[in-house]
Amino acid sequence: MLHTINKSPFGNSSFETSARFLQPGDPVLFIEDGVYAVQANNKFSAALNEILKNNPVYALGPDLNARGIAEITAGVKSIEYEGFVELVEEHQVNSWL
Length: 97
Prior knowledge:
With about 100 residues, this protein is of the alpha/beta class. It has helices spanning about 15-20, 45-50, 60-65, 80-90; strands at about 1-5, 30, 55-60, 75-80, 95. It is about 30% helix and about 20% strand. The longest helix has 10 residues, at about 80-90. It starts with a strand and ends with a strand.
């Protein structure tokens, strides 16, 4: 199952809540304000590194760029809209709002 997170972890608990439901191998995609979670060296980096041990993690590149996020946590892959569409086609989606 693909887990998409679109809310900033600084103002919403979607990131923490979703982490409790991840199964090994489930991809996680941060979009919109959710991309703040993948910014390098923030208070969510440790939790994100735990997720990266068992799950692929992606962030939507245009959303990173729109928010001025240049450095992301090691292991997180920046993808474009085409990659987003491919993930949605390959997986059932659970959107954490």
